[in-house]
Amino acid sequence: MRPDLSHIDTWLFDLDNTLYPEESGFMRQVESRMTDFVENVTGLPRDQAYALQKKYYAEHGLTLIGMMRNHGADPADFFALHHDLSLEALAEDPELLAVLTKLPGRRFVFTNAGDTHAERVLAHLGLRDLFDDVFHINSFGFTPKPDPLGFQRMIDAHGLDPATTSFFEDSERNLKPAADLGMTTVLVGPTALASTAPFVHHRTDKLTPFLTAARLKEAN
After folding, report:
1. What tens digit of pLDDT does each residue of 26-47 get?
2. Which domains does the chain have, with CATH numbers?
3. How far apart are CA 127 and CA 119, in angstroms?
4. Beta strands in the chain (DSSP E)
């Protein structure tokens, strides 16, 4: 059956592992740099630094928040570690670009990543000009997904109507506050089809075929 998104006029997308496939392996570079940061700030051995990184991610939605609150870490130093990451693992997807262009209404990126990282990745993928705005962690006052406050700030900043907004994410837990607000949620990625969470309305292992098949609002 074709997914029915004919009520949607606002399209909200996570960035990493959503607008490009998880199989690219790009996020492994990002995670390694995060571990470097935790290791450098805390002085912990790498295995303990990695465990702390994951603990803070689970507790706060973003490793950086735990580092800021518990170790006085400077977010500028954290984000600077990612500015020279190689983007060779990421490739433009002409089919995705074409289908995003056809989506009726406004399009936004909603990411826990920093501004420079988000802009670099979107530009490399050839997608930046397709989005009305990039709402990154700096935009919503370091209240990362799945914090409902971050979602509310996104809604307030752009006058979104959750009832006509669809949110695409690779992280299941980040979809719950979106669903609670009334958004239509889509879980994306290789494990999406196995999800049984009631707040996940649609599931797809690949973004492009899902959007291609979706029933969209007709132009007026």
Report:
1. 999 999 999 999 999 999 999 9
2. 4-21+92-216 (3.40.50.1000), 26-80 (no CATH)
3. 10
4. 4-5, 10-13, 106-110, 133-135, 165-169, 184-188, 202-204, 215-216
Q: Which amino acid is at 85?
A: L
Task: Label each residue of 83-124 as H, E or C.
Answer: CCCCCCCCCCCHHHHHHHHCCCCEEEEECCCCHHHHHHHHHH
The pLDDT tens digits of the residues spanning 98-114 come to 999 999 999 999 999 99
Whole-angstrom Cα distance, residue 154 to residue 135? 7
Termini Cα distance of the chain: 25
CA nearest to 70, candidates 16, 168, 62, 125: 62
153 token code pair: 């700030």
pTM of full prediction above 0.85 = yes
